[in-house]
Write a structure and sequence with these properties.
This protein has 216 residues and is an alpha/beta fold. It has nine helices and ten strands. The strands form three sheets. The chain has a six-stranded parallel beta sheet with strand order 2-7-1-8-9-10, sandwiched between helices. A two-stranded parallel sheet has the order 3-4. α1 packs parallel to α2 and α1 packs across α9. The longest helix is centred in the N-terminal third of the chain and has 14 residues.
């Protein structure tokens, strides 16, 4: 039986584009016949945000109901980290145990055994997901096959990547994806060269290459 490959996704910051990257990668894989599923333990945005919400983007890519990607009671209508949003709304504040206990993956997708489970976290690695943990906590608990760290490509990239990768620890199966990379931009190229010249995580700028790595 095909073994499901678990991919955990974090960003170097909020609004870095990790949901867009997820949508692109998952749509590519699905189009290639890979059985994919996406989950987001919690999400938050303002009630009047026209959307689409993260779960809608990911669900559109995998062909899943957004309510399965992120359970409705974990969608908070305040633009704060989920445990803070829950508290602000007077709702029970979830713990990591609560969120992981609700995490259910389908056995099959599109008539085939699930091959890739894409788990998107919130904000940066240390942005709270539950009352007692963040993306690093989730990675420690689930031991994913791959951690994708989505980063910007411009000013401040090197510092953001190094600070965000460090909490996952040495030897973590982590790859950096520089989103919005422009090969014609001198700073983007220099940031990429600097990161690749050091003994750090693998750095990718091409969605096709990232998709291949996620597929395994």
């Amino acid at each position: 039986m095909t073994r499901t490959r678990l991919v955990l996704v974090a960003g170097t910051a909020t609004d870095i584009g990790k949901t867009w990257v997820g949508g692109q990668v998952l749509a590519r894989l699905r189009a290639d016949g890979v059985a994919v599923s996406a989950r987001k333990p919690a999400q938050s945005a303002e009630a009047d945000d026209p959307g689409p919400w993260d779960a809608e983007v990911l669900g559109a890519a995998t062909g899943e109901d957004p309510a399965d990607v992120c359970l409705p009671h974990r969608s908070y209508t305040v633009a704060m980290a989920p445990p803070m949003a829950a508290h602000a709304l007077g709702l029970p504040v979830p713990t990591i145990d609560d969120l992981l206990g609700e995490l259910q993956w389908p056995e099959e997708r599109d008539g085939r055994p699930l091959e890739v489970g894409w788990l998107e976290t919130v904000g940066g690695p240390r942005s709270p997901i539950g009352a007692d943990g963040d993306a690093v906590t989730v990675a420690e608990r689930l031991q994913p096959d791959l951690i994708v760290l989505v980063a910007d490509a411009g000013l401040g990239t090197i510092n953001a990547v190094l600070l965000s990768a460090a909490p996952f620890g040495p030897g973590a199966p982590l790859v950096v994806f520089l989103n919005r990379f422009d090969a014609g931009d001198d700073l983007h190229r220099r940031n990429l060269d600097w990161l690749r010249a050091r003994q750090g995580p693998e750095v990718i700028v091409d969605l096709g290459a990232l998709s291949d790595l996620v597929r395994g």
